[in-house]
Structure to design on (490 residues):
């Protein structure tokens, strides 16, 4: 099959969150299975150009109809760790992708609507005719709308679209100006409740809703999240739309790229280890303590890595920090917040506990340190309010660091409680709590710290159980190929 992924991110060249890892990891798995895969991305000025091999200009003057005129683009091609990537560089006075940031601008709606149009225009003009176009999140929600309203009749009529929802909190709600700029026009037609009209804001265009309505199949990133966004307020207003389109909707759990996240081969670690020979994990723990100036004492290290966003349970992270340092454990956090107020709050917290030898807050992202934390920590905390899939808990398990998670979304699909899950003990791999409050967190955190101190043999078995879990792209790759095959023959 010939598959084109259209996305706003792809690791490591343009990465903000898990979306980037999914686009790269799924593309690699599809190629391993014998498919031709290409990825179309914006050419950001903040992209990691050091990760692109043989970057070259392949289309000098792509004229993209826009706003009653045309924006001229250059298209570049290069390999990102073996993946074939095209980068669209618009020469517009708005400088769409030369903003020193991936997201967060007042005109993000127009920036990514233009990207959708430019991607399809490039496919049309360069005679690319994929069987499957796979789009991701609200930033590419306009692709299937443009495809079936404009580009199918122009020569892309046989393409089928799979659309993946990574997080319904962000839907790309905008105004009819996007319709006019992109050449769709007819706001009275597209604002109809059965098309792009936002369910709760009269006169507003919902780009994610458009992707759901016009795609041939819609996926989200875990089976539990698929249920939650159909039946709880986690759909942020799109529950009715998902209900109407339930016959083309399902959850496929994301995978982890074990070429990147694997303690047996990880070049970031001072010593490598495996489930068969796990002893060197303790050398990684010693290295982590030396790097972060934690005291070397008989205590487990509890870690968190991630974006500091309210979704992640920030009040529970603060609670866990003090519960650990006053309750026989150490606490390490790596992450930052796009919200300046939250960042300042954690900077104050860092200052408050700065002299404590059992805690360290690193308020930025550091890839090298992330690998060392996954390997050197004993327990990994993910206390999310909601979590569509989550990759950190799956990565932590590969490194023998049992996760402590709240039972939501993909966390519920991947972590099975050591004490209460009905599965055989060999299939249990962590600690789970349900209530999104400090008492709920304590019900799992204190059991985890207690098991580490009081029953090291059982804790070691739990650690090895976690390492043996297979959350590679092997299984989701098969699921996506089945979906692609289904829609291309429909």
């Amino acid at each position: 099959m010939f598959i084109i992924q259209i996305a706003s991110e792809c690791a490591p060249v343009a990465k903000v969150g898990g979306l980037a890892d999914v686009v790269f990891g799924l593309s690699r798995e599809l190629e391993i299975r014998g498919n031709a895969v290409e990825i179309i991305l914006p050419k950001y000025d903040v992209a990691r150009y050091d990760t692109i091999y043989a970057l070259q200009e392949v289309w000098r003057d792509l004229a993209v109809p826009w706003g009653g005129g045309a924006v001229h683009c250059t298209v570049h091609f290069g390999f990102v760790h073996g993946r074939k990537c095209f980068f669209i560089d618009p020469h517009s006075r708005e400088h769409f992708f030369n903003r020193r940031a991936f997201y967060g601008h007042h005109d993000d709606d127009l920036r990514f609507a233009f990207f959708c149009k430019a991607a399809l225009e490039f496919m049309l003009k360069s005679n690319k005719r994929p069987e499957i176009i796979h789009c991701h999140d609200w930033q590419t929600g306009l692709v299937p709308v443009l495809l079936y309203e404009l580009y199918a009749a122009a020569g892309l009529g046989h393409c089928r679209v799979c659309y993946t929802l990574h997080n319904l909190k962000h839907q790309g709600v905008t105004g009819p100006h996007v319709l006019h700029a992109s050449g769709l026009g007819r706001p009275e037609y597209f604002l109809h409740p059965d098309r792009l009209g936002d369910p709760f804001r009269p006169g507003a265009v919902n780009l994610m809703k458009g992707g759901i309505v016009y795609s041939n199949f819609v996926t989200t990133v875990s089976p539990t999240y698929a249920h939650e966004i159909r039946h709880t307020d986690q759909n942020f207003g799109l529950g009715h739309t998902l209900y109407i389109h339930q016959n083309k909707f399902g959850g496929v759990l994301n995978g982890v790229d074990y070429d990147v996240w694997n303690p047996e081969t990880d070049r970031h670690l001072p010593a490598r280890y495996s489930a068969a020979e796990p002893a060197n994990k303790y050398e990684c723990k010693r290295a982590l303590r030396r790097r972060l100036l934690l005291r070397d004492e008989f205590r487990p290290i509890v870690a968190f890595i991630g974006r500091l966003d309210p979704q992640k349970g920030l009040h529970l992270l603060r609670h866990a920090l003090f519960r650990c340092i006053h309750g026989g454990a150490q606490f390490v956090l790596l992450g930052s917040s796009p919200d300046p107020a939250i960042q300042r709050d954690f900077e104050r917290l860092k200052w408050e506990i700065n002299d404590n030898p059992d805690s360290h807050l690193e308020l930025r992202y550091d890839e090298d340190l992330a690998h060392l934390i996954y390997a050197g920590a004993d327990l990994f905390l993910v206390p999310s309010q909601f979590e569509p899939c989550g990759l950190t808990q799956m990565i932590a398990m590969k490194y023998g660091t049992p996760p402590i998670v709240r039972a939501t979304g993909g966390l519920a699909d991947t972590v099975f409680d050591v004490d209460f899950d009905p599965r055989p003990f060999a299939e249990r791999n962590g600690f789970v709590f349900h209530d999104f409050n400090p008492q709920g967190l304590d019900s799992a955190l204190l059991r985890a710290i207690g098991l580490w101190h009081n029953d090291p043999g059982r804790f070691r078995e739990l650690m090895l159980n976690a390492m043996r879990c297979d959350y590679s792209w092997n299984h989701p790759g098969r699921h996506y190929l089945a979906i692609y095959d289904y829609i291309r023959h429909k």
Q: What stands out?
A: The chain has two domains: 2-255+474-488, 281-468. Residues 2-255+474-488 form a domain with the Rossmann fold fold (CATH 3.40.50.2000).
